Structure formats: structure tokens, C-alpha cells
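Two quick folds needed for the group meeting slides. Do the first one here.
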Amino acid sequence: MTFTVLSVASELYPLIKTGGLADVAGALPGALAAEGIAVHSLLPGYPAVMQRLEQAEPVLHWDDLFGGPGRLLAARAAGLDLFVIDAPHLYARPGSPYAGPEGDFRDNPQRFAGLGWVAAELGLGRLSGFRADVVHAHDWQAGLAPAYLHYAEASRPGTVMTVHNLAFQGQCAPELLAALRLPPQAWAMDGVEYYGGIGFLKAGLHFADRITTVSPSYAAEIRTEEGGMGLGGLLRSRAADLSGILNGIDTAVWNPEADAALPGPYSSDTLSAREASRAALRRRMGLAERPVAPLLGIVSRLSWQKGMDAVLEALPALLGHGMQLAVLGSGDPALEEGFAAAAAAHPGQVGLHRGYDEALAHLVQGGSDALLVPSRFEPCGLTQLCALRYGALPVVARVGGLADTVIDANEMALAAGVGTGVQFAAAARAPLEAALGRLAALWQDRPGWQQLQRNGMAADVSWRRPARHYAALYRAVA
């Protein structure tokens, strides 16, 4: 008998992506298939999604879907089984799924209430021939799905709520309660009320049968006052229902032995072939031809959360060690300007590419000797998993999933032959400078460095283990 999960997310790679949520939502269905789990993914019909659909067939229709007519399409795209909400008044907008030139779309509450409401409709069996054993909601945009299912007062499937980043919570005015099709009794502390407003993520965390987040360490951090970001008390009360399941990466997409974005393939047995990617990255980023210099990479949002201010403060130490830096990212205008100024002041030593470029992200992983990930908090992180896969040593702050996935190359780890990168205490100048000093010392031992690379490349960063954990959780919930 087929076990079916409805995965509800606001983005999904390779159709629409702004961050790691899309990578997870896109890769998990394939990994779960090996566990006997059939996943149908529900997402909004943004223009980028609608253009990629194959075999799209209308299966449900609503005269009024939060302000206009809408259809549900059953479709295939990129090898995934999809349900897509075709509601142009909500989703037919260019650019970001969440914001326009003037900031967040004002009707985001209605747009993502629509996502949760359609998920509940499917969960309640409104579509003939489709039955979900579990509805799996991802992040605040899908947070109302467990609430709608709860208030339906009908037989419903099990529900799982996954927090990819607790910092994004989805809040709106209480006056929207009726417009969001929530009953009056939902306005309560044991409902959707959250500090005087309606909390999408709070609703999901309160009503879902089980809660997951994307690493065991982050699951512990968010139960604290500091890490809980206003939701710590609720998460402590639900500690028995909360678990951390590490993310994986798609090892077919991220594979240095068959990556078209690299000038040539390499493996842990042919690390010398990696030099072509190092040279290509230096050329692409306008860095001087210095093969003996350690080349450090960054693929990140340029934000306070990601610790990018600490990188700028530690830049003199980095350059003092003779290192080069290649930065790919965008974000806080002040930090963008800070890296642009650094690149102008240190030509050939610091290179910056503003924005995001998927192929360049692969080249940074393949061409960097080490990858900086100095986050102040990090639910899981995917970029350090890619770095391990590509033989770039992750240099990470000891938080969340970074602490769970990188083995610090300290004296005992080196002696045991198990180190894969460098951990440091916190995203601040002094700890990062100390980590850079350790990295420079490791670089001097070329055979030892290559052993660290091989250790990382041998690590299992795939979805195999996480998929087994999710499959067991789904069956327990159902």
C-alpha cells in the first residue's frame, strides 16, 4: 500500500528558489521514494513555476480563493509530482516570490493563507482519488495548513511542521482573522494569536502533530530564550514532539566528478585535477595568479545573521596570512558596499560577485581551498555540506547544523584522522582571526590538508539518512 505525503512549500528547486528551503523541498521527494514514500508537492503558481509545468491538468476550482478565482493543477516538472495553485491575483508577479521593489507584498497574508488553505482542502480529501497520510508544512508560509486542518473538525491526516529558519515567522494584523478564514475561537493563545497579531509559524508549531527542524543542535537552540526568538516557551512545551533531522544535499547536482560548471572533473583520488577549478575561480573573480596562496570562498547572503560583518573586520588578518577571498552573494547594502570597497582596495586579493549565480556557486565550491561560514545562527546550512563534497574545508561557527556537520581539525581529530574542517566559537573578529590562524597552519602541511579534504569528500552528505528519519516520523504520525 502506497504511503503518501503532501509536502507544502512556498518554493521548490529547480522551479523557484531564494534559499535552502527550495533545495530541501526539491530533493527530499526523490530520497523518500527509496523509503516507499510517495510525495506530492504543493506550491504557488508563480510565473517561473507555470512556465516549467508538464502534463498540467486542472483538478479543482474555486470561485473565490482569497480575492479571486483559482484552480488547482496536477502536474509534473523536473521529475516531481506537483499540485500547483493557479491563482494569478495571488501569484502572477515577476521577481521574488515574497516582495517587490517596495518591499514585502502587502497581501502576503492572503497569498500564503491560500497555500495553507488549499493544503488543508487536499488533506481533507476534497480531490477525488488523492489521499494524504501526512501533510508536511515547511516554514511560516505553510504554517496555517495545520491550523485549517485542526479547525475543520473532520477526519484529517497527520501533520508535520518543519522550521527551516525560526527568524522568519509570518505575522499579520488580528483584523485579518475572518478574511483568512479562521474561526473566532482561533483568536487565542492556544490558537493563532501571537503577541497581539496572527502568527503563521506560531500556528503551525502549535497545531502540528510533530515539529522538526533541520539539525539536532538547532532543535536545542530554539528551545532557549535567546534562540527561540519569542517562540522558545512554546517550543519548550512541545519538546517531546520536536526533533532535529539534518538536511542533506542532492549529490547528483553537487558532484565534482560530473559537474558541468567546473572546467574539469576531479575526485578524492585525483585532487591534483582540482587545480583547474582553482585557476578558473581566480580568473572569474579577478584574483591574482597565486597558486600557492590559500583561496577562501564565500557563498552567502551578506547579512548580520551570516556573520559577514565579522569577515570584514577580520579581513586584515586574512590578507596578512597571504590568503585570497572570493565572495558570491548579496544582501545588506552596507555589507555589499563593504565587500565592494575591500575588493577595490585589494585588487587581486579580494573578488566580489554581487547577486547569485548557480554555476558560479559550483565553481566557488570547486575552486576554493576553504569556505567561510561564520553564521551567528544556522539551522542547518547547506553550503558547508557542498564544501565537504567538493574538497573545500569548511570554516564554521560552532552553531546549529554547522556544529553538527563539520568535525573540527583539532589535535585529537588530526591524530585520529577524522577532521573535516575548522570550527570556532562565535561570529566575531577575534574568534574568526584565530580560526584563520589555525587554517594557515594547516595549509603548511600539504599532505595533512589533502587528508582533511579526503575526509570531507568521504562524508555522507546525501539525503539517505535524513530520508530514513523522515519516513519513520511520517509513519509514526500517521
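Then this one, please, same format:
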Amino acid sequence: MKKTTLKLAATTAMALGGSLAFAADECGDVSIADMNWSSATLLAYVDAFILEEGYGCNVEIVPGDTMPTGTSMIEKGEPDIAPEFWIGNFREALDKGVADKRLRYAGRSLTDGGDEGWWVPKYLVDKDPALATIEGIKANVALFEHPEDPDKSMFMGCPAGWGCQINNENLFRALEMEDAGFELVDPGSSAGLAGAIAKSYERGEAWLGYYWAPSAILGKYEMVKVDFGSGIDEEHFYGCITQADCLEPKPTMYPPSEIFSITTESFASKSPTAYNYITQRSVKNNVMNKVLAWMEENQADGEYAAVYFLENHEELWSTWVSKEAAQKIKSAL
């Protein structure tokens, strides 16, 4: 376990004096889960900085992941905060934890939710707006060259073994992509998928495939999500499209993934001011994508990236905190 080292300089601490001591008494010890992917790591360290410097909390960051962290929060009451929880298949257990007054859904970590879909480079849509639609793509199938078969066009899906592999296979059938001349291609790995986008973008080539936000790739390369013309049928998506035995898949856009900040009831009760901050803290995907791209390009860890975020997005984080806390955070930066 790592103890954060984000402390006020001695002169700042002396200047704040009694108000900081009062905040520390109110907040006390707080543990935050680092959920082991970049956006969650960033939020964990942003929360640590703000809670320590703005509210005088004594913060510890602990390793985390979806299932073990959720289970530990429900059964053991620790850690206190999971900053970015993709509730997905764990929703039933979380709902029970809330009903049993062990947990709280504090607020949405990502304002837009997780954003999955099929994407094309923006420069294609700039040249031909029809390429932002699946019908426009089918009408221009020859643009999307297959690297190994000149008689076919390529749609790049998920690596084998990922949950989204099933979604893409079913949507590929639902949208009759094979009849249009496309072949569903396995990128082999996450790096292969990201690399394919980067290679096509840097060469100005046509590319069509699956990706998600928040992600560094969508922060680095401007992509447009393809409109299936279907709207979102959430019931069919979860009842059929996500299932390997979906016999009659129908077109539907991906529903936004629900992503929440989860806290324990004990933290919310003992530290209402700090808890209120967590309820306010939410980031749009376009902002998160850009920060993740910066993290990747600079090989920045969560602590360094948190400082970068706070220094460059005061207009955002200052709306999450009180004026007094904002001044303390600015002084610490």
C-alpha cells in the first residue's frame, strides 16, 4: 500500500492554522482505491490531493479492482472510496450494499458514462459527412481496405476473449456487414487495436472499428462515433447483443456504461463535507481523454498526472469544492 505524499509546505500549513486542524478532526483517515486503470488511477490521486490539501484528510491509496474492491467495501467497510466503479455485472451486489446501508452511490465519476461504439477518423467525416453513418460506410465500402484481402474491406473488432468481442460479432451480423463486403478482423490485443488506429490516422487512411472512452487513443486522435440509425435499445442490447447465443441480433447503439463513485456509508456519515466533494466530482470524457493521452505521452504516474490535471483544469475542479478548500488547493499547487 502506498501512502500519498501530497502535503502542504510548512509555511502554508502554519498560515492555515486552526482551520486545517478543524478539517482534519472532521475528516480523519480516508482510504481510496486505485482501481488499476489509467482514468481510475488519475481520479484516485486527484481525490487524494483535494481531500488532503482542501479538507485536511489523512489519505491512504490502496490497490483495487472491481470485484475485490466492491466486495471488501460491502463486507469490511474498506476502502472508503472507489473513485471510478464500472458497476456493470456487479450492480446487484452494490444495490444490496446500498439497501443494507453499507454503501452509497456518491455520484457519476464520468459525466457521459463509458462510451463504446464503432468509430472512424474525423478527417473522413470532414470530407464526407455520410461516413458518420453506417449506411454511408456501406455505400463506400471500398474505402476501408483489408490489409490481407483486396476483395474485402476491414472492420476491426475486439481481441479474442474480451467481453466486447461478443457484442461486436452480434452487431456485425445485425448490421449485415458481411453482405456489404466487410470482414470482422481480430486485432490480437489491446496494443494491436490502438496501434491500428494510430497507423491509419498518421497515414490519413480509412479505418473502421470498435473502441471506447475514456481512453488515451481517443484523446490523441479525433474520431467520430458511427450512427447506426437505430437509437439505443437497452433491453435488446443486454438481453441479446451481449449474449453469445443471441440468435436474432438487431441493430442498436451501445448504451452508456454506468460509472459511479462509490463510498462506504461510514465515510459518508463521519465526513459529510468530504463526502459532498465526492458527490460533486465528475469529469466529461473529452476532458478525461485528453488527460489520459498526456499521461501516456509523458509516462506519468497517477500522482504526477493529478497535479497536471489540477493545474490545467481549475475551472472544473473549483466547482467541486468550497471556496475555502479551493484556496487551500491552489496554495498547495
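Slide caption for protein two: The two ends are 24 Å apart (CA to CA).
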